[in-house]
Description:
It contains 3 helices and 18 strands. With 416 residues, it is mainly beta. The chain has one domain: Porin. It starts with a helix and ends in a 12-residue tail after the last strand. The protein has helices at residues 2-15, 55-60, 336-343, and strands at 72-89, 101-104, 110-120, 128-143, 154-169, 174-188, 198-214, 217-224, 227-236, 242-249, 251-262, 267-277, 291-301, 306-315, 352-364, 367-376, 379-383, 386-404. The longest helix has 14 residues, at 2-15. A hairpin with a 5-residue loop joins strand 9 and strand 10.
Amino acid sequence: xxxxxxxxxxxxxxxxxxxxxxxxxxxxxxxxxxxxxxxxxxxxxxxxxxxxxxxxxxxxxxxxxxxxxxxxxxxxxxxxxxxxxxxxxxxxxxxxxxxxxxxxxxxxxxxxxxxxxxxxxxxxxxxxxxxxxxxxxxxxxxxxxxxxxxxxxxxxxxxxxxxxxxxxxxxxxxxxxxxxxxxxxxxxxxxxxxxxxxxxxxxxxxxxxxxxxxxxxxxxxxxxxxxxxxxxxxxxxxxxxxxxxxxxxxxxxxxxxxxxxxxxxxxxxxxxxxxxxxxxxxxxxxxxxxxxxxxxxxxxxxxxxxxxxxxxxxxxxxxxxxxxxxxxxxxxxxxxxxxxxxxxxxxxxxxxxxxxxxxxxxxxxxxxxxxxxxxxxxxxxxxxxxxxxxxxxxxxxxxxxxxxxxxxxxxxxxxx
Length: 416
């Protein structure tokens, strides 16, 4: 138990320095990061629903896969993400005070941290593994306050989750898992000159299963509830009347498959499919439609210690057609043009991403190290008079894992 206490103390210390900023639009499916910036999964385009190669991905994704992590393990990961986010407004939006302009967002890149801790309970005769994590769940932001014609347009959103998860082996082939997350979110904007930074809290749960179809092939599925948030007095209407903004994270359903039968077991191939249900999420349902995201990843064991990773991800463009609608419970002046202008601040339009990574097991005795990088291809979309272009989109990150009383994860058989 002393090892568990020592790792928990390290987690508590790390939380105090885990900082996040916002401008990670381009790495998200909608608003959420999923596992795209995790230490090992980041090099495999986020693929992780059946055979995650880092413990943060198991805690944050399919909790049934926690059974693949032995002993006591603690991992700290960080990432930097940046992109050029350009908005061109062709027509005025009179009641919002916006006139035509073309400018690149002044929001800097994002610094995001993901921290995790796992402990298997086999030493107590229980076929279970527990996990705790502090995760950067979502980030998005644009800032045009230095552009007079934008009338102070700025939108910033950040979400952090504290996650407790557990997985249990029912048989040698089948494991089940569940997780509970308490999230804190910060919202500023997106309503021109009437919003202020506010905080809200929300909870969500996940359940998952992982099944070993064959010695080299496994199948994972998971369901994640939506997270309800209510930002109190977040916007001021005419006359100074405060109103709440309802903002939900969407429900997610995912399935993943992994196989390591090729090249004498040295090549791991994996694919995930995630369905994101934006149509049931307040705020997002006004600007996004439901979307599919497909992630494909590979990992090659170049030596007994070195792992090389590649990945590709594709997602449907979630931006929905124009409609007269309130956004998060707030009825916007100017109607449809105002809704379209808000869409231009939350334009998750990048659809193609490539990633690469490298991992070294026992970089130091009992310590593994991972690096990853990714690029999303340039994308442009138009929302009536509002045109958005995202370019120069890249991210880089790392992760360090300390293992106590266990071998490297990749040396553990995938069976539960």
